[in-house]
Amino acid sequence: MRSVIFLLLCCSVLIPAHAASSGWQTAKHLQAELISEYRQVSAGQQLQLALHFVPDEHWHTYWQNPGDSGLATSLSWQLPDGVTVGDIQWPVPQAIAVPPLMNYGFAGATVLLSDLNIAPDYAASSIDIQLQADWLVCEEVCIPAEAQLSLTLPVGSSAVVAADYAALFQQARQQLPQTLQANGRFDTSGGAFSATVDLPQPLQIEAFFVAAPELVDHAASQQINLQGNQLLLQQPLNTYFSGVAPQIELVLVTADAAYSVQLTQAGQGAAEILVTQGQQRDSALWLILLMAGAGGLILNLMPCVFPVLSLKALSIAANSAQQAQQQRDALFYSAGVVLSFVLLALLLIGLRAAGEAVGWGFQLQNPYLVALLVYLLFALGLSLSGVVQFGLGLMNTGGALATAKGGKGSFFTGVLAVVVASPCTAPFMGSALGYAVGQSAPVALLVFTALGLGMALPFLLLAFVPGFAKVLPKPGAWMDTLKQWLAYPLYLSAVWLLWVFGRQAGVDAQALLLIGVVCVAAACWLWGRRQLTQQGAATAIAVLLLLIIALALPALAPKPTVDNATAQTQTAAAHWQSWSAATLQQLRSEGKPVLVNMTADWCITCLVNERVALNTDSSKAALALYDVTYLKGDWTLRDAAITEYLRLYQRDGVPLYVLYWPGQPPQVLPQILTPDTLSQTLARLSRQPQS
Fold first, then answer.
1. Which of 4, 133, 296, 373 is the most exposed place for a label (fewest CB within 10 A)?
2. 205 and 161, same structural domain?
3. Tens digit of pLDDT for each residue in 73-127?
4. Mean per-residue pLDDT pooled into runs of 10, the chain (691 residues)
5. What is the gyration radius of the CA atoms in the chain, in angstroms?
6. How far is 583 from 435, CA to CA, in rounded Å?
7. DSSP state of 632
8. Distance between CA atoms of 272 and 275, rounded to whole angstroms?
9. Are residues 161 and 188 in the same domain?
10. Residues 579, 613: one domain?
């Protein structure tokens, strides 16, 4: 009897029970085992497997995005037919600083979970699981390692939990980020990763981890801003960034929890992502419309608009005794302004939908259109100077329409005012335009309509409010003298556009345009003589030929040539550098303060700001005092990178001034700068503690 008991005991030792673990395998500075949540499984079941790492003290492994260096753990499975396994469910990582680098990984014991799915018709008596695990374990040095782990699970009529590992699996699930149902978008323009997340409730986020590798500069500071339930995030792009999937995972970390959010890349037509603290615009439509109206009103004071408005002012003064005619002219002028804004909006929306990177003032990025405006303003000036009277025959477009009497003249004066107003961006106007282009077409058209009504408001008040009309002087001989004086602002505007054309197309093209201006002057002079003497068809043919020559010359202009040596010398002598997304990213990653100025040669506001506030000795001294790198982006000709940068800050035109201070969110400066704006802002930022 004793011999039988002894044999049974021996058999119990030699025939092992089904284990839920592969057993520990030892590699350099790390032990690993593969564990099943169930000791016995059944067909149609879903369960979890765990790869359990225990590294030596001070050693660590890596997350799915290892950061600036390292390598994520990879698993290769061999499973029987009817059995599948899911991706690794990554725990919340730790930030592991290795100055000047930043890595993401796990120090101490780590459990990587994966779901195992068994088909309902699985008929075998067991499941043989083979796992090839590859990882990198690091302290000051890094050692790649691998292990072959195997596990056999019996298949029965019912599943049996591996009770001795239940606590391990429970703890591993608690270390996973919670899935957060939230609408999240991201963008990678402007040298930074930017994201907005509409949270179901406010959360105080302390840090975030981007799962996509080589997307962000991991060692750079993170900008985190909560506006109500909307979370705004920003971090500079990685030096090696080359592209990203359209959907990525983001892990948000609070003081006591972590959340996983799926972000979708913002498309061309999506509302843009605003990433600067204090720059979140109130999206209430009434406020945007109010800002658009105010921007249009202030637009009348911009130097690029005044020369054309002088034509309308002269017309109103001429009809000061006829209120009905004043009101009719004001309504036609307002219709011209509003319809022009609506047409510009439709064109801009259409080009955006087609993938074109355009913004406010985009038409003046075309040198040929700039040349046509030079001719038009110059011809209008000649008309006011008495050289020619438009509206009597051949030249019944452009200047004729704008200088004609009655409703037609008022309407096309409004059209011309909008065309030449586009180089200017008035206060409040940039925010309204930036909002409009990211909204649906009806909302965008409503915003542009409000902009037009704001621009037309002064003339509506003069025509329909008796108190305003009383300030107008009575018609008299003085009006002819005033008309001739008002020609000179038009000549100056033509000179300015001539300079813009030269900057765009080069000095050779500018010379051809000047020849075209002479042709326009000759055509106007000949036409003026014909009006006085009633000369025959020969004069009309000569005028037509001169105009054809003038129109052809800008199209024949050669492409500008760039003298690299001269350009490098000029850049070295200037107190600014040319902007690029890569340069901005590099400077920010180095922790240097940066001032970005987005400008264009046709932007009068930009040029005035540079002369008054940015190129002064005091501003240059402030930049040098605080070691600020000054980057200037030139939008005179179309530049898709600058357009994307403008959209990042919900702007659709220039100027845009952004000041980056280490440890602080980017600061967007006002569109109208004073001589002290830059120095005062730098002094204030220098006193603030870094976040």
1. 4
2. no
3. 999 999 999 999 999 999 999 999 877 788 999 998 999 999 999 999 999 999 9
4. 40 48 90 95 95 93 91 94 95 88 91 96 94 90 89 93 94 94 82 85 91 89 82 85 87 94 68 38 63 77 60 58 75 86 76 52 65 80 77 38 58 73 54 58 80 84 72 59 73 80 78 86 83 71 78 68 45 73 86 90 77 87 90 82 77 82 83 85 78 50
5. 35
6. 28
7. E
8. 10
9. no
10. yes
pLDDT at 377: 77
* CA nearest to 178, candidates 92, 49, 101: 92
191 and 206 housed in the same domain:
yes
Two tokens at 442?
């009806």
How many degrees, rounded to 5, is the angle at CA 604 between CA 288 and CA 632? 90
What is the rounded CA–CA span in Å between residue 303 and residue 493? 9
**Residue 519 within a domain:** yes
Tell me the Ramachandran region of residue 253: left when phi exceeds 0, alpha when psi lies from -120 to 50, beta otherwise: beta
pLDDT digits (tens, 9 = 90+) for 31-54: 999 999 999 999 999 999 999 999
Task: Verify that 172 and 234 share a domain, yes or no.
Answer: no
Q: DSSP letters of 380-407?
A: HHHHHTTS--TTSSS--STHHHHH-SHH
The 10 Å Cβ neighbour count of residue 36 is: 26
CA 355 vs. chain centroid, Å, equals 14
Q: Is residue 563 part of a domain?
A: no
Kindly state whether residues 35 and 143 are assigned to the same domain. Answer: yes
What is the separation of C-alpha 64 from the centre of its chain, rounded to a whole number of angstroms? 28
Reported as half-sphere exposure (CB side, CA atoms, 13 A), residue 488 has a value of 4
CB atoms within 10 A of CB 361: 22
How large is the angle between the packed helices 537-555 and 367-384, nearest 10 degrees?
140
Q: What is the number of H-type helices and E-type strands within the chain?
A: 21, 26
- Domain end point (choices 176, 196, 211): 176
Number of CB atoms found within 10 A of residue 207's CB: 12
pLDDT at 560: 57
| Residue 5: inside a domain | no
* CB 64 within 8 Å of CB 72: yes
What's the CA gap between 140 and 313, in Å, rounded?
77
CATH number assigned to the domain comprising residue 640: 3.40.30.10
The pLDDT assigned to 278 comes to 36
Angle between helices 429-436 and 285-299 (to 10 degrees): 130
Total structural domains within the chain? 4
- Residue closest to 583 by CA, chosen among 633, 543, 541, 624: 633
Q: What is the domain-level CATH number for residue 184?
A: 2.60.40
Structure tokens at 569: 């010398």
In a domain, 274, yes or no: no
Which candidate, 240, 239, 234, 204, places its Cα nearest to that of 221?
Answer: 234
Last residue of a domain, one of 521, 555, 589: 555
Q: How far apart are CA 615 and CA 619, in angstroms?
A: 7
Q: What is the pLDDT of residue 480?
A: 66
Residue with tokens 């695990």: 133
Q: Which two tokens stand for residue 519?
A: 């042709």
Is residue 348 within 8 A of residue 367, CB to CB? The reply is no
**Strand bridging mode 207-210 / 178-179:** unpaired
Residue 92 has which token pair? 């919340």
Query: For 32-75, what is the HEC assignment?
Result: EEEEECEEEECCCCEEEEEEEEEECCCCEEEEEEEECCCCCCEE
- The whole domain housing 129 covers 13-176
Q: What is the 3-state secondary structure (H, E, C) of 82-97?
A: CEEECCCECCCCEEEE
Q: What is the bridge-based pairing of β-strands 629-634 and 577-578?
A: parallel
Closest listed residue to residue 144, CA positions, set 72, 213, 90, 89: 72
Report how far residue 54's alpha carbon sits from residue 59's, in angstroms, rounded to the nearest whole number.
Answer: 9
- pLDDT of 364 reads 60
Sign (positive or negative) of CA dihedral 367, 368, 371, 373:
negative
The pTM of the full predicted model, rounded to 2 decimals, is 0.45
Kindly state the tokens that stand for 320: 């000061």
Same domain, 359 and 494: yes
